[in-house]
C-alpha cells in the first residue's frame, strides 16, 4: 500500500492526479494537505488535512509515519520576489526535507512553461534545487492546462491557444488528465 502526501493537492491538477492515481492503485492512501483542510474528493482513501504547506513543522505534525511519494502542487505567479518565495519555494523546500527524512521513493513537482517570465524562471530554479536531493524528482511542465471542471478566463482562451500551439509549442494547451497521467506514470515507474 503506497502512501502519498500531496502539498496543495486539493487544487485543479492535484484533484485530477489523485483520481488518476486511485485508478492505477486502488490500495493507495492519500494525505492531501492544504491551509483550508478542505477537498471536494470524497473517498475513504483520501485523507484531507489542514496544514500550512510552507511551514515544515506544520506539515510534519500531521504526516503519517510512512511516506512513499510526496508531491508539491503549490504555485502561482507573484510579482514580489519575497511573496514568490513564500508561495512557491517554501513548499518545495518542505517537500524535499520531508522526502529525505521519510526516505520517500520519489518527489513530484509541477513546473510551468507558460506565464510571466519570472514565474517560469522561478519554477525552473526550484526544480534545479530539488534535483540536488538524494530523493528522485519527477516533474511535469505543462503549458495551459484545461478540461474537466476548469471554467475560467484562461480555459475560454483554449481554442485560440490550440491554434497558436501549432506554431509555438510553449503555447499548446494540454488536458488536466494528460498532466495527471504523466505525473503518476513518472512517479510510479
Automatic annotation (TrEMBL):
Residues 4-109 form the NAD-dependent epimerase/dehydratase domain. InterPro entries: ComplexI_NDUFA9_subunit, Epimerase_deHydtase, NAD(P)-bd_dom_sf. It holds the Pfam family Epimerase. GO terms for molecular function: protein-containing complex binding. This is NAD dependent epimerase/dehydratase.
Amino acid at each position: 500500500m503506497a502512501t502519498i502526501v500531496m502539498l496543495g493537492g486539493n487544487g485543479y491538477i492535484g484533484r485530477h492526479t489523485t483520481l488518476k492515481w486511485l485508478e492505477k492503485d486502488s490500495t493507495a492512501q492519500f494525505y492531501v494537505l492544504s491551509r483550508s483542510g478542505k477537498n471536494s474528493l470524497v473517498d475513504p482513501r483520501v485523507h484531507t488535512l489542514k496544514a500550512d504547506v510552507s511551514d515544515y513543522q506544520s506539515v510534519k505534525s500531521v504526516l503519517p509515519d510512512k511516506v512513499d511519494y510526496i508531491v508539491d502542487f503549490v504555485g502561482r505567479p507573484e510579482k514580489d520576489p519575497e511573496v514568490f518565495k513564500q508561495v512557491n519555494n517554501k513548499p518545495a523546500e518542505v517537500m524535499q526535507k520531508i522526502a529525505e527524512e521519510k526516505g520517500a521513493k520519489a518527489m513530484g513537482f509541477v513546473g510551468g512553461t507558460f506565464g510571466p517570465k519570472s514565474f517560469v524562471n522561478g519554477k525552473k530554479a526550484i526544480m534545479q534545487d530539488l534535483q540536488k536531493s538524494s530523493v528522485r524528482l519527477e516533474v511535469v511542465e505543462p503549458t495551459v492546462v484545461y478540461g474537466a471542471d476548469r471554467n475560467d478566463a484562461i480555459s475560454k482562451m483554449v481554442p485560440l491557444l490550440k491554434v497558436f500551439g501549432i506554431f509555438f509549442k510553449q503555447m499548446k494547451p494540454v488536458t488536466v488528465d494528460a498532466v495527471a497521467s504523466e505525473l503518476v506514470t513518472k512517479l510510479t515507474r
